[in-house]
Structures are given as structure tokens and as C-alpha cells.
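Q: What would this chain look like folded?
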Amino acid sequence: MDHEFLKYASKFPALSEADALAIAPYITVQTYKKGTILLADGEISTRCYFVLKGCIRQYTVVDGEEKTTGFFTEQQAAVSFLSFSQRIPCNHYFACMEETTAIVGDPSTEQAMYQKFPLLESLTRSIMEQDLGKAQVEFAAFVTSSPEQRYRNLLATRPDLLQRAPQHQIASYLGVTPESLSRIRKRIAAKH
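A: My prediction, written as C-alpha cells:
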């Protein structure tokens, strides 16, 4: 029985301890080493990951250069939605930036689990709706923000990433060069 899952499940009042204990044996929890590629460009995604501990980076390669498009940390799902649901090749990578423990889902067991535990389907849907809502807000803020505003937003909402990811990946994620990020950080530091 995985204690990471039970610890996470305890955060949901709708999921009783008895429900969590009944579901736990059917949940696949895996730990991956730092550097593990979970999904590669051109593959069809057969798994989704819900991070319990660790960090998964999503990136694409453009003209030989990695472009970071997402970081998934504790209590976030890393899913290549189009590839997973429509069985088409993806155009990005998922890589573990640090040792990562995640709930691993796959379509072959998902439906059976939802039939056996309808509450789990409801809970999963609720989590996905929240994630989608957050992603829409973050995307709108990203598109309408200057690079400095993007960095300030990252400082305010996900300061842990600044300790977990190298500066060049943070810069890529913000859509700037590492040199520009360095100038932004200096400007902000000078104002304080």
C-alpha cells in the first residue's frame, strides 16, 4: 500500500479513509530517477502522471534547442491530453528533473477503476477541471504580461521552481534568454 497516495487522498474530505484504503491497492505509484524520460517526441502517450513528490519538465526541441513549456510539481498532473485521448504522436517530452514519485494512470485500467469506484471518477474530473481553469488563467496572464511581469508572477506563485530548475530552463519557460532573465533579476533586486 502506497503511503504517498494515502497522504494525498487525505486532503479530500469527500474521500473517506475507508474509500482511500479500498482504492489504494488499485493505484499504481512509481518512483522515477532524475533524468528519466517519461515521454518522447513522436511517441503516443499511454500514461498520465500525477506528481506526488518531485518535478517533471515538459519541453519541445526547436532547431536543436530545448524550449521548456511546463513544470509539473507536487499535486499537478502531467498529461499529454491529445496524444493520450486521441492516440496520436505527441510533439514534446516529459522528463524527470529530480527523483519523482507519481500516480501513473493508463487507459486500460482507468475505465475499470472508475466503474468500481465512481467517487474516484468524480474526484479526478474535479481535479482536471481545476487544473484546466488554472492553466487558462496562467496562459492569459503569460500572453498579456511583459517578461518582468512573468518572472514576478513566477516568484509569487511558484517560487520553489527557482530552486529546482536551472536558470536556462526558467528563462526558456518565461520566453526570454538566460541573459535577459539575469537582467530582470538584477533590476528586481535593485528595487528592493
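The radius of gyration is 18 Å.
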